[in-house]
Amino acid sequence: MSDIGEKCGVFGVYGKGLDVARISFFGLFALQHRGQESSGIATSAGWRIACHKGMGLVSQVFSEDDIKKLTGHIAIGHNRYSTAGGSHVDHAQPTIVGDWSIALVHNGNIPSTVALEEFLRGKDIETDKLSDSRMIAQAIGVFVKEGATIEDAIKKTFPLMTGAFSILVMSKDKLIAIRDECGIRPLSIATLNGGFVLSSETCAFQTVGAEFLRDVNPGEMVVIDANGLRSEQIVKPNPKLDIFEFVYFARPDSHLLGKSVYSVRRNFGVQLAKEYPLRADVVIPVPETGVPVAIGYASESGIPLEMGIAKNRYIHRTFIQPEQHIRDQGVKAKLSPIIETIKGKRVAIVDDSIVRGTTSRKIVEMLFGAGATEVHYLISSPPIMFPDFYGIDTPKQRDLLASDKSIPEMRAYLGATSLNFLSYNGMIKATGISEDKFSTSCFTGEYPIDIKERMKEIVAKKVCYTPFVE
After folding, report:
1. Which residues are catalytic?
2. What superfamily does domain 5-239 belong to in CATH?
3. C-beta of residue 350 within 8 angstroms of C-beta of residue 284
4. Does 215 carry a binding-site annotation?
5. Which class in CATH covers the domain with range 262-312+320-438?
6. How far apart are CA 449 and CA 436, in angstroms?
7. Mean pLDDT in each 10-residue stretch from start to end of the chain (470 residues)?
8. Would you say 132 is a known binding-site residue?
9. What is the residue extent of each domain of the chain?
């Protein structure tokens, strides 16, 4: 899954007497999987906002002195994954506007920024070099400058945001959360020592010792200030969480829509075993997301589970550029075979998805090189045939392996003995949640939030899932 990336993780804290910057640091640390490109924290003690951000992992961006300088009782934080905009400190968040009176962090993507651009240009604000997140912050700032409260400014900006967003906004004395009407990206609320914590994923609550309260509802605005927590439903909700959060992005110790991510992934594996029983000697997961799926597959099939691939967890992000020989190693620098569990075996390898297919092809080559006699590739989701416009950094449609290849053609490209994808219906069944609660656009090409002019980038395809019948 090195072919795909999530755009961001967001985290926020409100509480008198809480060390909000330190709590945010560890919250972002728990959300590191959602973005490794840059990180930042902004705080407020009730007057001017302070901010520190930079390129790299959370542990690289912040020192003890940085945290000590970020004082106050309100904080928001952000981890960013590099997307089409490229890697630059200017893209790091929080975004600060309004003479350091408003800070914003954003998880998601606004595929059509036409409405925002038109509004801002009408206010003599140039938009050519602004990201979607920056445009949102600028629009809120405009309304505040014209005399609106921060809450009213957000409500007035809401109709201009055509896309997916889980956003935290911090003024000098308030912490505000909003989600788009579909709730494409997750966002949850917890309590901590009389204060409140907001996070992209519930796994961060465990890290900082907060107690889960509830999810921010799709289309809802939650306001936290000296008077406590209150909320307002800005638009009618149409819940459509991106199912890819279950497939790949969320940490296994998180909960989404009341379901354990680990349990759902294990169910994917059980369902895969029912749909595709194999004659194999060993089940091996591609770490990390493939692990619970492989556990489920092994349990249901009776085939032994082994950790046949070791992952270098620390190579993903470093400021030291690899020399050419190491760069040429590609996937081998991140994943290494454990030959003793592979040699002479018929291997069932379990992965979460196939995007371009380049990494999967190298994994197959690596397993045969380690002595596997057969390599059966099992995928815990259907073929990805359509690009995402809601905050996942997927390739253009023409670069998706499944967009122009049948499953037999994909198998031949990978060089695998066999290739099987979890059926669409099997995937939905494994979640234990109704299909209408999900966005499944990467698999179906159906986009629940209008992507407007970006729809011209989509070529209709005959969806190539294999049917699952009870």
Report:
1. 8
2. Aminohydrolase, N-terminal nucleophile (Ntn) domain (3.60.20.10)
3. yes
4. no
5. alpha beta
6. 14
7. 62 97 98 94 94 95 97 97 60 92 96 96 94 96 97 98 96 97 98 98 98 98 97 98 96 98 98 98 96 98 97 58 52 87 98 95 97 98 94 85 95 98 98 98 95 90 53
8. no
9. 5-239, 262-312+320-438
